[in-house]
Amino acid sequence: MTRRDLLSAAALAPLALSAKPSVALGVSSARSPRPSQGTYAATAPETLDLSDRAAIALNALSGTLDPENKYEMYFGATFVANPPYMFHETTGLPTNNPKYAESFPMMRVMSGSDRFLDIEKGMMDAMLSLIAKDGLYYSPALSSRPWNKDLYPGPESNEDFANVYGNSRLLLAFMAWMQYDPAGPWEEKAAGIARALSRIAVRKDDYAYYPDSRIGEAFSYPKSGWRNTDEPEVEAMGAEGSMFVYHSGPIRALTRWYLVSGDKQALETATRVVRFVTKKRFWGARGVPDDITSADRAYFTGHMHGHTAMLWALLEYAVATSDSELINFVRDGYEFARHHGIPRLGAWLNDSPDVEVCTISDMIAMAIKLTEAGIGDYYEDVDQAVRNQLVESQFLRADFLQQIVDAAPKHIAKPPRETSERVIERCIGSMAPMLVIGYDKPFCLHCCTGNGTQAFYYAWSKIVEPRGDAVRVNLLLNRVSPWMDIDSYLPYEGKVILHNKTAKAAFVRLPYFVDPKNVQVSVPSRSLTPHWMNKHVLLSEIRPGEEIQITFPIKEDVATYTLYNVLERPYYSERGHSLRTERQYACRFRGNTLVEISPRVSMPSYPLYLRDHFRQARAPLTTKPRYVASRKISW
Q1: If DSSP states are collapsed to H, E and C, what string results for 352-400?
Q2: Which residues are CB-neighbours of 553 under 8 A, at least 6 positions away?
Q3: Mean of pLDDT over the chain
Q4: What single-letter DSSP state applies at residue 600?
Q5: CB atoms within 10 A of CB 413
Q6: Dist CA 315 CA 332 (whole Å)
């Protein structure tokens, strides 16, 4: 993404922060193209639409903020309490509010919704006010955030601190806002953070790193300067046992800032940090055969999200610098990571029974970026993850949550750290780490809400893409766009209708379970000859206003998977060997969509994959407004 790309995307529709999407309602006609802008009414299959999920996500992004305390997000929520409550943690403002700052514009681009703009503006204004003259975004001292008295009863630091990862995520957010609201102060603030991240990096020999001063959130820079400049000795340092998370942020953000601005200092800093984190002492997996040098292949043992976040950052840098060796390193690490858990569900886990949404987001992003780098086609991984564990991890069922609350012990919220005000209502649309079968003791960690909502955008933005006067359809999911609308009848039927608007040709990727010999392509009133390349079909000489129908058989299949540590967190014997529990899961699929799984969690709980309706032979139809995004956020 160059600066010209970024600004041209923003120029599609200059936007004031409070602007509403234009509306031009009308019923689409097969004889003329559907509208290429605004909002229009259309009948479409009632199947997964990520823009709908984005609209619901805005409820959670706004509802989990605390306007009374600088709009700091409540880091978590628990529903095994009556009433349920949300709570603050030290990581909210320093590292997770910046994720929300990036998610808000992405969800608005997807959905066109203008709900909760006042709350969004309040949060952004509050965060801008915390940026100091040195360019860094500082979290107030622990002693000035009231809930820290509960978390840190001993002596506390009275110094503001700037978390390295949080500042990196805010730099990424500001680059998104530069495209969404070009008139805002985002570019100036982004440049300041980039300069500061380079300035505070500790340089040694030919590499650089960020130390942990143990003030506030891990790997945070005190306003008076580093109190400790020792380099991390092992990867398992910092919160959740992973210093990789904190170092991944500067690599990804500074690399992207270099592409946007041409800032060579940003690239030089990213290069030095890459040299540090790729040292062999940080890599390698237990139990790998001797003939595989696992440290050379990005294999790992430890915190899954920490490693996948780092792999994604290394991939961004490798692509920007055309480092083919590093791209291969990341590909090996991605392949290693994808075998943990149940890849067909996008249920990736490691050393934990929970599927962390942050990991799903990293893996989806990597799958797309690896495909774009030309080192493989991983869109099947994206399709499977999105249709299954990603969307199932979003809380939509207030009734399930209420059942759990009704059976839970009484709890009296302790403000200002806790609140019990409309918790279920405010958390609808949030995302949570869950077991593959659901949760009997559900809670939210809103770091997952920040990352998971962005995964919606990553996938949505790649469903259909323009390629000159042609389009490429990567995923058979519902999407409206200025170039072509996709109506997907999956998983009920093997049918997709392409409503062409401007394209002269379309290159369509079909899922792995589709046999090209059984595919039918039709256009009303004329013949159309498809051209095949493996699982891709090229449709040439298509016309504006045409509806191209692609049909193929879809059938059910059953698979059994074994997971370890699925009922309890891992523990260790006296000899240090992991004592693993084992459970098998029977899964029934229609195409890439899981429609049934057993065993299940017992009620009251929050069960997943209640999808019997997907086994019907015909997809239900619905007429609703459909919004054509007028902006694009490059990521």
Answers
A1: CCCECHHHHHHHHHHHHHHHHCCCCCCHHHHHHHHHHHHHHCECCCHHH
A2: 494, 515, 518
A3: 90
A4: -
A5: 17
A6: 11
**Continuous H helices in 64-116:** 97-111
Is-above-0.90 flag for pTM?
Answer: yes
Report d(CA 191, CA 263) in Å as an integer.
9
Shortest CA distance to 243 belongs to which of 169, 318, 309?
309
Report the Cα 117 to chain-centroid distance in Å. 22
Q: How far apart are CA 253 and CA 222, in angstroms?
A: 21
Burial 261-296 (b: 16+ CB within 10 A, else e): bebeebbbbbbbbbebbbeeebbbbeeeeeeeebbe
Tokens of 253: 């953000």
Q: In the block, which residue shows the tokens 């509403």?
A: 20
Quote the DSSP letter at residue 611: -
Our measurement of the distance from residue 568's CA atom to the centroid of its chain's CA atoms, rounded to an integer in Å, reads 26
Amino acid at 456: F
pLDDT one-digit tens code per residue, 457-500 = 999 999 999 999 999 999 999 999 999 999 999 999 999 999 99
How far is CA 209 from each of CA 95, 201, 212, 234, 492, rounded to the nearest angstrom?
A: 18, 6, 10, 13, 51
For 579, the 3-state DSSP assignment is: strand
DSSP state of 240: G
- Using N-to-C axis directions, what is the helix angle for 264-277 and 304-321, rounded to 10°? 130
pLDDT tens sequence across 519-576: 999 999 888 899 999 999 999 999 999 999 999 999 999 999 988 754 443 433 344 4
Q: Which residue from 324, 194, 330 is spatially nearest to 269, judged by alpha carbons?
A: 194
Q: How far is CA 237 from CA 211, 287, 306, 356, 495, in A?
A: 10, 22, 11, 19, 49
Q: What residue type is assigned to position 260 of the chain?
A: V
Which residues are paired to 589 by β-bridges?
557, 594
Closest CA to 408 of 79, 61, 28, 26: 79
Contact 545, 31 (CB under 8 A): yes
* Nearest residue to 160 via CA among 178, 185, 143: 143
Burial of 349 from C-beta contacts in 10 A (0-12 / 13-18 / 19+)? buried
Show the DSSP H helices in 130-263 as ranges.
Answer: 148-151, 164-180, 186-200, 243-261
- With a CB cutoff of 8 Å and minimum separation 6, the contacts of 161 are 94, 138, 139, 141, 213, 215, 216, 217, 220, 221, 222, 223
What are the C-alpha distances in Å from 599 to residues 53, 91, 201, 230, 529? 27, 35, 50, 49, 46
Number of neighbours of residue 117 by Cβ within 10 angstroms: 17
Give the torsion sign (CA, 8, 11, 13, 19). Answer: positive
